[in-house]
Design a protein that fits this description.
This protein has about 350 residues and is mainly beta. The protein contains no helices and 26 strands. The chain has 2 domains: about 180 residues, Neuraminidase (6 Propeller); about 170 residues, Neuraminidase. The strands form 7 sheets. Strands 5, 6, 7, 8 and 9 form a 5-stranded antiparallel sheet that branches. A 4-stranded antiparallel sheet has the order 1-2-3-4, with no helix packed on it. The radius of gyration is 19 Å and the shape is globular. About 0% of the residues have low confidence.
């Protein structure tokens, strides 16, 4: 995870696990003013005396000059109660002094297996409101633990700098497949049981344009024959959400997975993902992207970011069963920049960066 504050200070953060096998963990961060010299890692969330094992973390920084919480740092995660992992809870830790002190706040009730929360994502509005999304698996009925492939994308927000969070609200339901390898993930078809986590990546329009304040969330849903990337949006701060809008044309009936979303300073919505449309066997993938200029109601013709094919099974792991958990993207001025996993070398996964030049 990486982010910058209004002063140009860079922050990086990641998940740490203990080496003794006790099940403890934490999210640690470092910061730098020059990109060369970095601070000693500090604890943002977790530790053996506070929480057990935080997973599926996200980092967000308030970069709005008009916000009273400007430069606040936020780290979200799902905290498991190791070693049994029978309980978990969505927690957000925040700091208002550059990471010197952190305060962790529970966002959602404790979930007891087979109920489960996973895959957090955050964005911050220009008024300082923090928006949080994640995936939820029910604990009752045929959908318990998402065992029947049905999952639920939830939303919460904080308007006071992360001290109090709204009660979790359902944005939309998704189908994550018929045979999950984990209660909240699905196998990518035609692979060695490679998991495809479904992070509901959120972005907010902080521009002064016609769609200012609109929230956007991207995810995939199983159609019955393939994984389809789709975007929902909200124009009322998350109280209600639109129907899902596909980012790819209807002719693309091959798997689309690992999407991410970012909103530019002018209100353009950029989505990138991995797509198998050019492989008749529906195995190899290429990176694609698309832009929306009308508030997420439609997406422009897709842009193919790579010409070479990548085989998800050539990922460099001994059992060839893991290619990563998510991709990412951002805006660099007018340009949309994406990062993803690429195995076109035929050996292992490499981090590749590309995008769309709009200037």
């Amino acid at each position: 995870m990486v982010g910058y504050d209004l002063n140009g200070v860079a922050y990086i953060a990641g998940e740490y696990g203990d080496s003794e096998g006790l099940g403890y963990g934490l999210v640690a961060f470092q910061k730098s003013t020059d990109g060369v010299t970095w601070s000693t890692p500090g604890v943002a969330l977790g530790g053996p005396t506070i929480y057990r094992l935080p997973l599926y973390a996200s980092l967000a920084i308030d970069t709005s000059p008009r916000s009273i919480f400007a430069n606040n740092l936020y780290v979200s995660a799902v905290v498991l109660n190791e070693p049994s992992q029978s309980k978990n809870q969505v927690v957000v830790s925040h700091s208002g002094d550059g990471g010197a002190r952190w305060k962790a706040v529970a966002v959602a009730p404790v979930q007891t297996y087979p109920a489960e929360d996973d895959f957090t994502s955050m964005a911050v509005g220009k008024d300082g409101t923090v928006y949080l999304t994640w995936q939820y698996c029910s604990g009752i009925g045929p959908a318990a633990g998402c065992s029947n492939g049905h999952a639920y994308m939830l939303f919460s927000k904080s308007t006071d700098g992360g001290n109090v969070w709204s009660y979790p609200k359902l944005m939309t339901g998704v189908t994550i497949g018929n045979s999950a390898c984990h209660c909240s993930s699905d196998d990518l078809p035609n692979t060695n049981d490679i998991r495809v986590y479904n992070y509901p990546a959120i972005g907010v329009d902080n521009s002064s344009g016609p769609h200012a304040g609109t929230l956007y969330v991207v995810m995939y849903s199983w159609t019955g024959t393939y994984m389809r990337v789709q975007v929902i949006h909200s124009t009322d701060g998350g109280s209600s959400w639109s129907k899902p809008v596909p980012v790819a044309p209807a002719s693309d009936t091959h798997d689309q997975f690992f999407p991410w979303l970012s909103v530019s300073s002018t209100g353009l919505v950029g989505v990138s993902w991995l797509d198998r449309r050019n492989d008749p066997a529906n195995i190899d993938y290429q990176a694609f992207a698309a832009i929306s200029t009308d508030g997420g109601r439609s997406f422009q013709p897709n842009v193919q970011l790579t010409q070479e094919f990548s085989n998800p099974n050539n990922n460099g792991f001994a059992d060839n069963r893991w290619m990563g958990d998510y991709a990412g993207n951002t805006w660099a001025g007018p340009d949309f920049v994406a990062a993803w996993m690429d195995s076109s070398n035929g050996v292992d996964m490499q981090d590749v960066v590309g995008g769309i030049r709009l200037h």
